[in-house]
């Protein structure tokens, strides 16, 4: 059997290409897997994706490109998943026959699926026999990572070997990798922070002011913690890199979830803003699934519900103003 010493990255997208480049710069052989044959051909020929990662002039020579699940599985122990929601199940189904119990799978897919609000780690377990799973989340930013500016992320996993493998692959003098055994908490903090980003984006687009921005951030985070508690996780992850850290970064940079909210707050019809959003704007779907969950749990979280009503086109940004009054009355 070939030694599985390379680092695997699944997803030739902006974050995936950046992680592959970082691991190669750290001295590792890297296998970058994609199911998109045309993208694989482009990377092999030109060693770059100008439409995805314009900052990178050429991929490191230690990065190999493949569309073959067997090559990924045979060469790598650590596999980093950087897929969009709509591709997760399909790609995991294609990888499933190749992966075994010796692999480590660490995802950056911040979703909730179905009425039981399945996290990405649970979806991965449905499709594979892999047990040693983790999540990576935080305010890490591709441009700054590639430029060698200070960045940080947290790996949530109950398996110390998984955290150590990610640190070996990615950590450097400018990229700090923290570890947290509470994988579920890290996953939920990263997922639910996207909802808060949408709400704050709506308020900013509607020019509600700095106080509304700050209040929605803090009270929205409180609602996220409440949802997390009903799902059995401690609040600490919400106040760490996956929660507050990632959320503050999202608001400052105007990342996709915030941008959707900002467009709606600025007057773009909700349906138009949502349909034109990039695949990274996962928070919209999360909001809709949360409303069904809140109804079942009989939870009255006004910011989350107001955000859902705005995304549905049933209310305007003023619904958030009413939600803030309701929060203040019940705090």
Describe this entry's structure for a reader.
The chain is α/β, with parallel strands linked by helices and 331 residues long. The protein has two domains: 6-181, 3-Layer(aba) Sandwich (Rossmann fold), CATH 3.40.50.720; 184-330, Orthogonal Bundle (N-(1-d-carboxylethyl)-l-norvaline Dehydrogenase, domain 2). The protein has helices at 14-25, 37-46, 69-75, 85-95, 120-127, 142-147, 160-170, 183-205, 210-230, 241-253, 256-265, 270-275, 283-297, 302-311, 318-330, and strands at 6-10, 30-33, 63-66, 76-81, 104-107, 132-137, 151-156, 175-180. The chain has an eight-stranded mixed β-sheet with strand order 3-2-1-4-5-6-7-8, with helices on both faces. Helix 8 packs antiparallel against helix 9 (210-230) and helix 13 packs across helix 14.
């Amino acid at each position: 059997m070939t030694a599985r010493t390379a680092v695997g990255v699944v997803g030739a997208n902006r974050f995936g290409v950046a992680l592959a480049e970082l691991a190669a710069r750290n001295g590792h052989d890297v296998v970058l897997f994609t199911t998109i044959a045309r993208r694989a051909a482009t990377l092999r020929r030109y060693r770059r994706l100008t439409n995805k990662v314009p900052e990178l002039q050429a991929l490191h020579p230690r990065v190999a490109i493949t569309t073959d699940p067997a090559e990924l599985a045979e060469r790598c122990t650590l596999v980093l998943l950087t897929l969009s929601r709509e591709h997760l199940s399909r790609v995991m189904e294609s990888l499933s026959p190749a992966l075994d119990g010796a692999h480590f799978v660490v995802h950056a897919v911040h979703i909730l699926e179905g009425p039981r609000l399945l996290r990405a780690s649970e979806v991965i377990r449905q499709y594979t026999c892999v047990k040693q799973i983790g999540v990576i989340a935080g305010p890490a930013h591709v441009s700054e990572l590639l430029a060698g500016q200070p960045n940080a992320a947290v790996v949530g996993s109950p398996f110390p070997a998984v955290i150590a493998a990610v640190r070996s692959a990615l950590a450097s003098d400018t990229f700090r990798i923290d570890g947290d055994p509470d994988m579920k908490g890290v996953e939920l903090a990263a997922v639910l922070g996207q909802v808060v980003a949408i709400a704050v984006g709506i308020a900013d687009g509607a020019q509600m002011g700095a106080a509304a921005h700050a209040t929605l951030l803090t009270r929205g985070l409180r609602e996220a913690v409440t949802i997390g508690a009903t799902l059995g996780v401690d609040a600490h992850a919400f106040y760490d890199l996956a929660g507050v850290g990632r959320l503050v970064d999202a608001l400052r940079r105007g990342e996709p979830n915030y941008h959707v909210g900002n467009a709606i707050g600025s007057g773009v019809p909700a349906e138009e803003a949502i349909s034109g959003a990039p695949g990274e704007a996962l928070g919209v779907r999360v909001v809709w699934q949360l409303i069904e969950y809140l109804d079942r749990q009989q939870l009255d979280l006004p910011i989350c519900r107001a955000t859902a009503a705005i995304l549905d086109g049933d209310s305007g940004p003023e619904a958030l103003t009413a939600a803030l009054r309701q929060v203040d009355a019940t705090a």
